[in-house]
């Protein structure tokens, strides 16, 4: 029936949701792997990533079932949730791409002060002590602390923070456009009639 037909819309929506399912499982797997191997010890970070992955999995599963069964109610709620996710993700991605250096430093310091386990993870992996200054009589998980030749973590984090924010913002922006594509496909698919169904039935 061509790419504008019922079958093409259904297949496109199914393919998009299969992609979302794979991304969600990848997020859950990477977070669990990082926790099991001790790469990330912060429960908040791991729990947050797994929570987002589970949420995305169930949203994608609802979209997949709705697309396969042409279920009007499931497709409607899927479309609304996906649009809300698009708004949030587009806003966060735009903020990541437009944030200036002072705002970036303030956010990094707030994140540093909020979690002691994150501080220890960063000190150990980056081999640094303290955020903007070292506490001489304090404790530090970095190997360099025993030799008293550590640099502050702020200096090391800021070397790559801009690149990471641009990367995260770019990836988020890309996926936000796939989400608005999903909203458009769902809206079009809901209003198409299944050629195999009873022509007199309400769909």
Overview of the molecule:
The chain is 73% helix and 0% strand. The mean pLDDT is 80. The protein has one domain (1-191). The longest helix is centred in the last third of the chain and has 38 residues, at 153-190. It has helices at residues 6-36, 43-69, 72-98, 101-114, 116-126, 153-190. It contains six helices and no strands. It is elongated. It is mainly α and 203 residues long. It comes from Triplophysa tibetana. This is Tetraspanin-13. Keywords: Membrane, Transmembrane, Transmembrane helix. InterPro entries: Tetraspanin/Peripherin (IPR018499).
Which key phrases capture this entry?
203 residues, mainly alpha, 73% helix
TL;DR?
This protein is an all-alpha fold and 203 residues long. Helices cover 73% and strands 0% of the residues.
Global shape: elongated
Mean pLDDT: 80
Can you count the helices?
Answer: 6
Report the uncertain regions: none
The H-and-E topology, N to C, reads as HHHHHH
Spatial separation of the terminal alpha carbons: 19 Å
What share of residues is helical? over 70%
Oligomer: single chain
Report the biggest beta sheet as strand number plus sense, adding barrel if it closes.
none
How much beta, percentage-wise? under 5%
How many strands?
Answer: 0
Question: In total, how many domains does the architecture comprise?
Answer: 1
Radius of gyration from CA coordinates? 23 Å
Structural class: mainly alpha
Transmembrane segments: 12-33, 45-66, 73-92, 167-187
Protein name: Tetraspanin-13
Subcellular location: Membrane
Pfam families: Tetraspanin
């Amino acid at each position: 029936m061509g790419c504008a037909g019922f079958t093409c819309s259904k297949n496109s929506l199914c393919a998009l949701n299969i992609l979302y399912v794979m991304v969600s499982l990848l997020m859950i797997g990477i977070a669990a792997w990082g926790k099991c191997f001790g790469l990330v010890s912060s429960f908040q970070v791991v729990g947050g990533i797994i929570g987002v992955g589970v949420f995305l999995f169930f949203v994608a599963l609802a979209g997949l079932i709705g697309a396969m069964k042409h279920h009007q109610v499931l497709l409607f709620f899927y479309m609304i949730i996906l649009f809300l996710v698009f708004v949030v993700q587009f806003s966060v991605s735009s903020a990541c791409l437009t944030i200036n250096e002072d705002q970036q430093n303030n956010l990094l310091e707030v994140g540093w002060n909020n979690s002691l386990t994150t501080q220890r993870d960063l000190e150990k992996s980056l081999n640094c002590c303290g955020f903007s200054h070292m506490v001489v009589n304090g404790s530090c998980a970095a190997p360099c602390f025993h030799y008293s030749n550590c640099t502050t973590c702020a200096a090391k984090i800021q070397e790559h923070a801009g690149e990471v924010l641009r990367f995260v913002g770019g990836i988020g922006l890309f996926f936000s456009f796939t989400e608005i594509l999903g909203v458009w496909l769902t809206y079009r698919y809901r209003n198409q009639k299944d050629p195999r169904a009873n022509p007199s039935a309400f769909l």
